Fold:
Amino acid sequence: MDAIRTEALTKHYKVGFWRPRPYLALDGLNLQVGLGEVFGFLGPNGAGKTTTLKLLMQLIYPTSGRAEILGKPVGDVGVKRRLGYLPEQPYFYDYLTAEELLEYFAALFGYGRAECRTRTAALLDDVGIGAERRLPLRKFSKGMLQRVGIAQTLINEPEIVFFDEPMSGLDPLGRREIRQLILRLRDRGCTVFFSSHVLADAEALCSRVAILANGRLVTAGRLSEMLAFQIHGWELVVIGLAEEVLKQGQAGGQIVRATRLAEGRYALELPLTPPPERTLAELVARGATLVSLTPMRDTLEDFFVRHVSAATGSRFSETA
Amino acid sequence: MSVIGHVAVNVFKESVRDKVLYNLVAFAVLLISVSYLIGQLTAGQDVKIIKDLGLASISLFGLLIAVFIGIGLVWKEVEKKSIYTLLSKPMRRQEFLLGKYCGLVLTLIINVSVMTLAFYAVLAYMEVTSPVNIRASWPAPATDLNLLKAIALIMIELMLVTAIALFFSTFSSPFLSAMLTVGVWVIGHFNQDLRDFGATISSPIAASVARGINYVVPNFAAFDVKLQVVHAQRVPFTDIALTTLYGIAYAGFVLLGAVIVFSKRDFK
Structure:
């Protein structure tokens, strides 16, 4: 049994008031996510990621196609008991305190009052909400609301968790905490399905990803299969390099691209062959000092840009 | 407690923290002030005027609460997107909607009860402070329990108005919902006139339209027995029971319509 399965899932919206015309938000999405996977759902703005999540939560209905979660049609109340969902930039009742909100949501799962209190206290501790838990949510910052959002997602110890842009609006510390949380959920055997713009996070967390563009699935698969992880060049960062030397170097074809960084540093892109030692020795001999030498591998970002550009026919790669 | 119960309690919490109940204090203060004023200005009619004013105030304040909270119940959840999280919990859309309705009805019951207590407090004060010869001239005691019949029907009317406001709010903006709900309420109070409209005009089309509206729009005038109870006229219990059944059945149909519309809606 798949954790999530969609077959030709399609959603058209009607846009325009006087003469409504269809707008294709999602076009024939076929997707399978296995149990226990951490699955990244990637794509540029307007690709159809949130539409897919809303279809899976039955907040909207498909124009055609079908979707199943844990082998049951979406919207099944029994299945809802086994999942958690964090929408993008969640809003909660600002007249409630964090504690009251979580107890309310826990009660909707049918837990008794004592159980609701225990779960609420434990989860708020987990996400780092301390004494503020007794303040109305209208006094919470965006980051704190996101933490409350995560806590409510986990109130029922779900088997599948859906996160829509969970890193959105978080500071680096908050993002790290979410990454750690996703890894903890994975270790517990929970399936995690998350949409994100932050490709580095997807690369660090996901076993598989799907890339969506213009409502269509561009590609889906294991990261290890998508990215060769082979070195295709070198990035050399030096300081104290004269500009004339740089021009000669480029003319000689040893430097593919040179980028001026801050404080007199240069990032130089070198080909895989000849080995970088010779170029480095030449540059050092002409007064440059080595800052770093890094092998260049294909990243998920490179892969993403290449595929999305091809799918959309845009010059995305040049602006990304 | 069921899912509907939990949603209802949350609506009640929202209403209380939205300071809706504070209007009751204003109402009670206003009523008491006016009663003193009227006591100074009128002779013998003061209790009747307080009864008129009190019942009208309960009806009006209740209507304002029903319409202005009712129209925002669903709209606010959709607009602020809190519905996304809520509907991902183990509940059906109809449970969400019925929970919202029950929560507002609970708020209204508490509001109307407190207003009724304030109303009877003023009437009791009048009863105690009025001389015996003045009291003898009243058609009924100041604290006449028959007034509760009018208040019970006001409550049923408010339950129906709430259902109508909720129905409109499932597919339209708060402004439009408010206009439509108040429109239905106003037309509903002239329902009898609409039925007889054919007798006063020559156009058969206009008469048919008026008759059609008469069939669709609830007869709100049926819930109004304020005049009878103030003048100590008899209002049979069978009339109250039948009107209550009519109101509950009508509210049930309107809620069914709201559930159908809401169940098919996309939350973009």
Remarks:
- The two ends of chain B are 31 Å apart (CA to CA).
- The CA atoms of residues 188 and 219 of chain B lie 5 Å apart.
